[in-house]
Amino acid sequence: MGIDRRNFLQQAGLTALAWGLRGESNLFLPPAWRNQIKQQAEVLASSNGRKLALLVGINQYSGNDLKGCITDVEQQQELLRYRFGFQPEDILTLTDRAASRDQIINAFREHLIAQAQPNDVVVFHFSGYGTKAKIPASLQQRNTTTINCLVPSDGATSNRWFGDSNFLLENTLATLARSLLTDQVTLILDTSYLPIGQPLQGNFRVRSLNRAAASSLSEKDFEVAQSLKAELNQRDLSSESLINQAQTLRGVVITATGPQQIATETDWGGFHAGVFTHTLTHSLWEAISASNIQISLTRSAQTIERLLGPQQQPRLFGKDQGKTIVPYYAFSDLFGAEAVITGLENNVKLRLVGIPPSVLKDYGVNSIFSLPSRYTEDTPKQVQLTSHDGLNASARFLQGSNSLEVGQGLQEEIRIIPRNPRLIIALEANLGRIERVDATSAFSDVGEVSTVITAGEGSADYVFSKGQSLQGNPPLKNIVEKGYGLFSVGGMPIPSTVGTQTEAVKSAVMRIVPKLKTLLAAKLCRFTVNDGSSQLGLRATLETVSPQGETTPVISQETFRYRQGKEFFFDTQSLPYALAGAFPQINAGTQIQYRLQNISDRAIYCLLLGVDSGANPLCFYFPDSSAVADPSQNIQPLQNLKLTPRETRIIPKTEASYDWQVPGPAGLSEIYVLGSSQPFTKTLNVLSQIPQSKGEGERIIDLPDPLKVMQAVQEDLQAASQVSSEVTGLDSSVYALNVHCWATLSFVYQVI
After folding, report:
1. What is the DSSP string of 371-404?
2. Which of 509, 516, 517, 519 is nearest to 437 (CA)?
3. What are the counts of helices (DSSP H) followed by strands (DSSP E) for the chain?
4. How far from 248 is each of 144, 230, 652, CA to CA, in Å?
5. For burial by CB atoms within 10 Å, which of 132, 407, 654, 752 has the most?
């Protein structure tokens, strides 16, 4: 007896997977069902209503141009079309001069309000300047003197005393959103309102108007908002912000930053884009379809936190903020992707939409992508990268690939990364000419640095500046001295690098050279992060341990792609923990542990290393108690941490004499859990040469030469990958890593 399409999906469990519901945990589907499931899912998804989007991005303003807003629109457009099934004719974009206040309002009314029906999906995105504007005294309410505004292309970007500002009030956006007939609404705002009086924060451009004080609104600006409200039959105008109106807004609102923070954009290596939009769209491309928007937002926040600290933290609010919802309320393709096909003339044109931001600039030619094998039982269809410039790339067909189609997502198979990358240092724009000349000369003698640029003029790894030059919000409290030092590209100080105010530039550069080695080692480690693409089944959870021995999970990471085609049901509680608008924080002195789980059917060898909040390199090591140590040397042989299939291990062991306590100072800590299908032979050999600290058994050790350790790690990962030298064209300057053979999970948290 046959079954209808909807019942087939319900029995197969795909509906539960697509919408993030909880189901059974071990349902395996025969390969013959997979194509039918995909086709049926697309039919079911298309029957759930129309999907409409209005995307606004403005680079060109009067003398205060931005650079990344149109890229934001392009990234959202590709995501909605190729990942979430929006039809091209249902996506309307307004960019630069076409995005005046009247044009934005009219497009919202005609494209969204006039067309959207109950149960349709609506997405509105804005990238551009924002500002906090003064309300005319005659219209101020309940001691509210300012209001948040979006700045259209015809908005006033200078404090003129005449005419209208042409700002789009947040309240007007709320008025428009409340007029939609559907509850499935997502508003995305990659802008900020806080004036900080400078265009750059570190190497990032700020998306608040560059003013020391609030802008001014005219009474006519308010009349436009009042008139629209009357036309749409809504209540009297309120001057409350979107956040304060959250309970009356349908769906969710996602903002790039909090109320008293900044939103930024930067050069990612060949292209500019909003820090928030780029990291969010990347996260959504790699997400599995059972994921939810809170998870993707948290993944985005982790990347942003490392760059900007507490200065930019994405927020989610609205009527549905407490619900578990799929991104954009839209069914997504079953499997995530690192690239999408945009053209097939002569060669394959790709957009590298899902490559981690930390590796994209250095992502190597000859990397290989494949069509998800669960879509077909035929010979794997693969392409090999021949060139790339920013997000755009070209590739050649490999065997079995000539039937690929535009719009198909491709998954990473082989990652090519450089063996000997170096750091790019940006000189803070407020440094004097002589200071910049001296710094450029000094860095030219540092082997870990390849290039020195002026902040805001290109992609960089760190900023060299004076402690008092960069303005933080909240203020950078942990700068004690006001001399030269290193900062993150978002302006956060690197611990123990800021010197005294009387120190010379060249002396400061020489003083921070040892720290540059640590920072370069951390960069190499980020090159290997692949939680989205890894096919090695590994799960890791960071937990705090109370004095009574009770554990609390803080962050959970897993290589979910390992599951694709194997398990179509699983408990969504095992997804990465996420708190919308929050970032993991741990008090200094707190005891922690890592719970490692091998969820695959083969052994996995693990390694824990990273950088603590004091920017000190560390590694967790496991002495080999069965080996005989050389009494003449203060070293001891080490053993691999091996997880057998389905094994769970606590690090440190519960019964161990060593407790892992989070050290100070306050700051950011980055710990990486690396998994490999083969032992870390070279890495353990390097680690075994480090003199032992006092005490016996497993423990944390400081790394005197972190760069040497990380290079050994990459050698081990390449050995495990066993990629043919033909793939790299015998290029000895790169590593070739196979996603089936390694996994790197990142744990970033704030120590307070």
Report:
1. --GGG-SSSPPEEEEEEEETTEEEEEE-TT-TT-
2. 509
3. 16, 37
4. 19, 17, 48
5. 132
- Taken in order 73, 74, 80, 86, the sign of the CA dihedral is positive
User: At residue 231, does pLDDT exceed 90?
Assistant: no
Query: Cis omega (within 30 of 0) on the bond before 637?
Result: no
Q: How far apart are CA 721 and CA 702, in angstroms?
A: 28
Tens-place pLDDT, residues 70-95: 999 999 999 999 999 999 999 999 99
**Residues 270-277, mean pLDDT to the nearest whole number:** 96
Q: How many residues does the chain have?
A: 752
Number of CB atoms found within 10 A of residue 656's CB = 15
Residue 483 tokens, joined: 């001399």
Annotate 73-132 with DSSP letters as a single string: HHHHHHIIIIIS---GGGEEEEEGGG--HHHHHHHIIIIIITT--TT-EEEEEEES-EEE
Distance CA 574, CA 22 (A): 10
646 CB burial (10 A radius; 0-12, 13-18, 19+): exposed
Residue type present at position 267: D
- Tens digit of each residue's pLDDT (9 = 90 or more) over 356-415: 999 999 999 999 999 986 555 567 789 999 999 999 999 999 866 667 899 999 999 999
Report how far residue 105's alpha carbon sits from residue 227's, in angstroms, rounded to the nearest whole number: 12
